[in-house]
Amino acid sequence: MSSVMKTPTAGASSSAPVAHNAVPPPPTTPGTRASRIAPHSHIKGLGLNAEGFAATDSAGFIGQNAAREACGVVVDLVKSRKFSGRALLLVGPPGTGKTALALAISQELGAKVPFCPMVGSEVYSTEVKKTEVLAEAFRRAIGLRIKETKVVYEGEVTELTPTESENPLSGYGKTVSHVVVGLKTVRGTKQLRLDPSIYEAILKEKIQVGDVIYIEANSGAVKRVGRSDAYASSYDLESETYVPLPKGDVHKQKELVQDVTLGDLDAANARPQGGQDIMSVMGSLVKSGRTEITEKLRREVNRVVKGYVDQGVAEVVPGVVFIDEVHMLDIECFTYLNALLESPMAPTVVLATNRGNALVRGTTDIYAPHGIPVDLLDRCLIVRTTPYEKDAIAKVVQLRANVEGLKLGDGVLERLAQKGHESSLRYALQLLTPASILATIAGRKQIELEDIDEMGELFLDAKTSADTISQHQHSEVS
């Protein structure tokens, strides 16, 4: 390939091959910012019908019908609080949708249910113990929905006027003496004269005229609910959450619901806020590393939470812990997992692995299915995922192309499906974006077969790479 690269001219054919390392043309809209597309952004749920059977290519899920139906049964068990003390184990080769199934389970459970994903290798930290990392993950996956009835001032902001006065401590500058806030509801309006500290909270929440807020009468805490739907026809730079105008009076009793996790409560009590002086601030910067939370503190938090639950003020919402590559855990972690599953407030545990019969880490002679000790394996409901067929691979590739806004030329989908069938689904998907860049450099608006062929020459799949290395090793030995 020549070292001198030429960009295509306007009169050149759009199908002419272009060197892969040519300089791309400048973007037409430099002011726009491209958003990152996650690998599983197309997954919206398990895609089951009312009877619990997998619908064809529904909710962004392609294939794996048996696994989706099994996970649907697990979702029903979790919702009915009948899955405690057990775990779900997803087993299958790489690239068969295990992570997608776990994300679909979290989508089915709802946005308010905590979902805490992690990888088995995350437990190996130099700052905290392995069992502490697991305990933190479990605590972050247990939600607490706190309901309180408070006296608040709620409404749409119609006026926000700070009043300044001379600073008594200095002859220079002024200070805010009070702030006047006007609130409007369906029933009427009210003008409030508030303390300067509340004005600081208003500035922190970035509240402006037209926002719907509420101010707690006792603590003075300010919360922005959203933008009034009366402004929904206006064009804002950022997307807003529009809410209707509050009903009733401005001054009212309101039931507030706050969602936190036990991990949040542990962290808040383990790192109490110090003073506002410079030494306290510098000390917090120096001590920014992770600290272990003692079991005594967790028992105290559990005691307080149990009191709230008994009073009917709070409700425990068990979430989901997803541990991918679970075979990377060692025997100490597996033993601790057994204890965590038996705890009274245990979340739903979803495990995933692509190993067969393997050595249990931390041992020298214990081999077990999937590298998991048999005593923990007995607690698991095992769901198998199968490799995708060629037609299913073509559907997944087309779906991802639609999500990423890519156009495929004639024969491209079949070529990518063939490459995915011969190597892996992930390899076929990974060729999409580089091929689109190559097509853009060539001045085309869609990916052609020549782009896929050149990407296949530039980027090897795992099987080809392994065969190449083994051939080099044999040649060196000979």
Provide the residue-averaged pLDDT: 80
Please give the count of helices: 15
- N-to-C CA distance: 32 Å
State which percent range the strand residues make up.
Answer: 15-25%
Structural class, judged by helices and strands? alpha/beta
Low-confidence stretches: 1-35, 275-288
Number of strands: 15
Q: What's the main sheet like?
A: 8 strands, mixed
Estimate the helix proportion, in percent.
25-40%
- What is the ordering of alpha helices and beta strands? HEHEHEEEHEEEEHHHEEHEEEHEHHHHHH
Shape: globular
Short description, anyone?
35% of the residues lie in helices and 22% in strands. It is of the alpha/beta class.
Description:
By secondary structure, the protein is α/β, with parallel strands linked by helices. It has 15 helices and 15 strands. Strands 3, 4, 5, 6, 7, 8, 9 and 10 form an eight-stranded mixed beta sheet that branches. The chain has a five-stranded parallel beta sheet with strand order 2-11-12-1-15, with helices on both faces. The longest helix is centred in the middle third of the chain and has 17 residues, at 295-311.
Element layout with pairings:
Layout: H1 65-79, E1 87-91, H2 98-109, E2 115-119, H3 130-140, E3 142-166, E4 174-184, E5 189-194, H4 196-204, E6 211-216, E7 222-228, E8 242-243, E9 251-261, H5 262-270, H6 278-286, H7 295-311, E10 314-318, E11 320-324, H8 331-341, E12 348-353, E13 357-359, E14 367-369, H9 374-377, E15 380-384, H10 390-404, H11 412-422, H12 425-430, H13 432-441, H14 449-458, H15 462-477
Parallel strand pairs: 1-12, 1-15, 2-11, 7-8, 11-12
Antiparallel strand pairs: 3-4, 3-6, 3-9, 3-10, 4-5, 6-7, 13-14
Helix pairs in contact: 1-2, 3-5, 3-8, 5-7, 10-11, 13-14
